[in-house]
Specification:
CATH architecture of the largest domain: Orthogonal Bundle
Structural class: mainly alpha
Shape: flat
Number of helices: 14
Strand content: under 5%
Order of helices and strands: HHHHHHHHHHHHHH
Radius of gyration: 26 Å
Helix content: over 70%
Length: 317
């Protein structure tokens, strides 16, 4: 009797699983396509991480390539002895930290201000204008930057010199270039990034605002005591994800904006890998650099998630 009692729940679970799959099989078919994409384009290429530890040969498969010197760490040692790599590593950290410190709060502030706008038509117009730069490529943005910030022919410098002041080298001096780089990055992304925060604000219970109004709270107090705490979990999750990418960098933005006069501040890991790997054919060296970059990003992600959970937030898992 006991054995029959144990078999009954198992059979019931199998039956319920079969019913569940017959009802929702379409969802799993839809899920199969993105899972196949991840498998083919994200996980299968990980096999070639081995190139970082081997002497690359175009005529051999990755499994047949001989192990590099120093127990496979030859190219990691070469990278850290390379001045260009150290410079790119420093620039990547500096630019990403500045992006995080100066750029991360902007979409939050914009979403809070936008949420307080009363006129819906004006609100939609502002949202549309703020979202538009996200859809421009960095080549187009650099063309606009030249028209505005060029030393002699730029619109802004023409106004400055017209007022009797000296032109500012926004694109030709390293310190000014960094400021221009950060400003253009914030301008291009803040509207699009605010969508997540606006969605989080929309999910806050409206009764909280009504109760605060009854208690005599103004707009600023509602924003500070209701809206901000309501979107705090979203802020923490996005902050953790941004910290996880602190050593990562997109290729198109620095590559489009850099020039020979500011390479000491504009060279980042993505452009270093392109110039030495794709153009210089140093595949083992640049694979080692990419592998190091990924490991550091994972460490930062795990650390940031651990800190957020210790502080009582959910984190990303």
């Amino acid at each position: 009797m006991k054995k029959e009692g144990k078999k009954a729940p198992v059979a019931q679970k199998k039956q319920s699983f079969g019913v569940y799959m017959r009802r929702y099989w379409q969802l799993y078919v839809l899920l199969a396509l993105p899972m196949l994409y991840l498998l083919i384009f994200k996980y299968v290429p990980m096999i070639y991480i081995q190139i970082a530890f081997k002497k690359y040969s175009i005529v051999q498969s990755v499994w047949e390539m001989p192990l590099a010197a120093n127990h496979g760490f030859e190219y990691f040692i070469k990278a850290f002895k390379n001045r260009d790599f150290i410079n790119a590593l420093r620039n990547t950290l500096v630019l990403n930290l500045l992006d995080l410190l100066l750029g991360f709060p902007v979409p939050i502030i914009f979403a809070l201000v936008l949420n307080e706008l009363v006129f819906k038509r004006f609100k939609r117009v502002v949202q549309t204008i703020a979202y538009m730069p996200h859809f421009l490529s960095w080549v187009i943005i650099y063309g606009l930057a030249l028209q505005i910030f060029a030393p002699s022919t730029g619109f802004l410098n023409m106004i400055i010199t017209g007022l009797g002041f000296e032109s500012i080298p926004f694109l030709n001096d390293s310190a000014h270039w960094v400021g221009t780089y950060i400003f253009l990055g914030i301008w291009q992304s803040f509207g699009w990034n605010s969508i997540v925060y606006l969605a989080a604000i929309a999910g806050i219970n409206s009764e909280l605002y009504e109760a605060a109004s009854v208690d005599g709270a103004g707009r600023f107090k509602k924003m500070w005591h209701i809206t901000l705490p309501g979107i705090k979990p979203t802020i923490v999750v996005l902050l953790v994800m941004n910290l996880g990418n602190i050593l990562g960098s997109s290729f198109d933005r620095p590559f489009a904006l850099q020039n020979n006069l500011v390479m000491d501040s504009a060279e980042v890991l993505a452009t270093f890998v392109y110039k030495n790997g794709i153009k210089g054919l140093q595949f083992s060296l640049t694979t080692a650099v990419g592998f190091f970059q990924s490991i550091v990003c994972v460490i930062f992600l795990l650390l940031a998630n651990w800190i957020s959970r210790k502080l009582g937030e959910r984190g990303i898992w």
